[in-house]
Design brief:
The protein has two domains: 2-189, 3-Layer(aba) Sandwich (Rossmann fold); 236-310, Uridine Diphospho-n-acetylenolpyruvylglucosamine Reductase, domain 3. The protein contains eleven helices and eleven strands. By secondary structure, the chain is of the alpha/beta class. Helix 1 (8-24) crosses helix 6 and helix 4 (104-116) crosses helix 7. A five-stranded antiparallel β-sheet has the order 7-8-11-10-9. A three-stranded parallel β-sheet has the order 1-2-3, with helices on both faces. It has a three-stranded mixed β-sheet with strand order 4-6-5. Bound molecules: adenosine-5'-triphosphate (ATP). Residues 3-5, 9-10, 32-33, 79, 82, 100-102, 106 line the site of adenosine-5'-triphosphate.
C-alpha cells in the first residue's frame, strides 16, 4: 500500500507503483490520511483517493484521524496519528508493506538536522530504507531519488501535486533547512552536498547495523537478521579472500576488510575511494559474472572459484 499525501514525492511514488504493479499483475492499494488540520484537507484526501481509484489502485482509503489530545507538539501528534492510520490500513488489507515517499533530499535534511543537534551515529544514519512498525514493514523506495525528479515525474505525467503549507512554514526547523540551510551549503560547497549527506547516512546505517549485531551477539540474543549467513570462518583463503566468508560479514565490516586488503595489494590509500570498495563489494554481493575491478595503482581484482583474487 502506498502512503500518499498528494504531495509531489508520494504522488510520483504512487504513479510508479501503479505502473509497476499492473505489469507485475500484483494488487496495490493506496491510503491517504486526512489530519483535519487545514481547511480543505478532506477535499484533498477525496481528490487523492479518486485519482487513485482511476489509475487502478484497489483498495483505496481516505482515513480521517484525530490529532488533538495526543502527546507532543502538533507535528509529533500528527505523525503519530498518521503512522497509526497507515499501519492499521495495511493490516486491514493484509498488505505486505507500506511504501513512503521520502526522497534523498528528505534524507539530507534529516542528516543535517541530526548533525546540528549533536546526534550520535544512529541519528546520523538518517531514515532507514526499511523498518517495521507494529508488525508492518515500512519501505522508502525513493531514498535514492531527488525531490526535483519527483516533481519532474509529476509534471511529465500531467499530475498536479498538493503543496503542503507546513513544508514552507518557517516555524518548522525542517522547512528552514529546506529553504535556507541546504541551499546555502549547496551554494558554498557544490551540488554534490545533498547526495553526499545521503551517502553519509547510508555509511553510518551500515556501521550502526554492524555494531548492533555485535551487541546482540554479546547479549546472546537471536540473530537480528537471520537472512545473513553467520560465518566465523577465516576470510583469507590462499592468496585471496573467501566469498562465502566475506558474504557472512556485516556490510560495514566487509567494506573495511576490502579496503584494508586493497591497500595490502598496493592500491594507494589516498586514491582508493568508496566507489572502488563498492565495486569490490559487488563482486561478493551482486555477482553477475562481471569482469575484474580495476583499483588505483594498477591493481585488478577478480572473482575466481569462490574467491576474490588479484588478477593480471
Ligand atoms: N497525509 C498523508 N497521508 C498518507 N501518507 C502521508 C501523508 N503525509 C505524509 N505521508 C507519507 O509520509 C511521507 C513523508 O511525508 P512528510 O515528509 O510530509 O512527513 P514527515 O513528517 O517528514 O515524515 P516522517 O513522519 O516519516 O518523518 C510521504 O512521502 C508519504 O508517503
Amino acid at each position: 500500500m502506498v502512503a500518499c499525501s498528494g504531495g509531489a514525492d508520494s504522488l510520483a511514488l504512487a504513479a510508479a507503483t501503479a505502473f509497476v504493479a499492473s505489469r507485475l499483475g500484483r494488487p496495490a492499494g493506496l491510503v491517504t490520511v486526512d489530519h483535519g488540520l487545514q481547511a480543505g484537507s478532506a477535499e484533498r484526501a477525496t481528490a487523492v483517493a479518486e485519482w487513485a481509484g482511476r489509475v487502478g489502485f484497489d483498495p483505496v482509503e481516505a482515513v480521517p484521524v484525530t490529532v488533538a489530545g495526543r502527546p507532543g507538539g502538533p507535528e509529533a501528534a500528527a505523525r503519530q496519528a498518521r503512522y497509526q492510520a497507515l499501519t492499521a490500513a495495511a493490516r486491514r488489507h493484509d498488505a505486505v508493506a507500506v511504501l513512503l515517499g521520502h526522497t534523498r533530499d528528505d534524507q539530507a535534511e534529516t542528516v543535517l538536522l541530526a548533525l546540528a543537534r549533536g546526534a550520535g551515529p544512529r541519528g546520523l544514519a538518517g531514515m532507514p530504507a526499511r523498518r517495521e512498525l507494529q508488525g508492518v514493514p515500512l519501505l522508502r523506495p525513493l531514498l535514492d531519488v531527488s525531490r526535483a525528479q519527483t516533481r519532474d515525474a509529476c509534471a511529465a505525467l500531467g499530475l498536479t501535486p498538493w503543496q503542503d503549507p507546513h513544508n514552507t512554514d518557517p516555524s518548522y526547523a525542517r522547512a528552514r533547512v529546506r529553504a535556507d540551510a541546504l541551499p546555502a551549503l549547496v551554494a558554498a560547497l557544490g551540488d554534490g552536498v545533498v547526495d553526499n549527506l545521503a551517502r553519509t547516512a547510508r555509511l553510518l546505517a551500515a556501521d550502526t547495523a554492524a555494531l548492533d549485531d555485535l551487541a546482540a551477539a554479546a547479549l546472546g540474543a537471536p540473530q537480528p537478521r537471520p537472512d545473513r549467513v553467520a560465518v566465523d570462518r577465516p576470510v583469507r583463503d590462499g592468496g585471496g579472500l573467501s566469498v562465502v566468508a566475506l558474504a557472512g560479514l556485516p556490510g560495514a565490516v566487509r567494506s573495511r576488510v576490502l579496503h584494508a586488503w586493497a591497500r595490502e595489494l598496493g592500491a594507494p590509500p589516498g586514491a582508493l575511494s568508496h566507489r572502488h570498495v563498492d565495486a569490490l563489494d559487488a563482486l561478493v554481493t551482486a555477482w553477475r559474472g562481471q569482469g575484474a575491478t580495476a583499483l588505483p595503482g594498477g591493481v585488478r581484482v577478480g572473482r575466481r572459484d569462490g574467491r576474490l583474487v588479484p588478477v593480471d
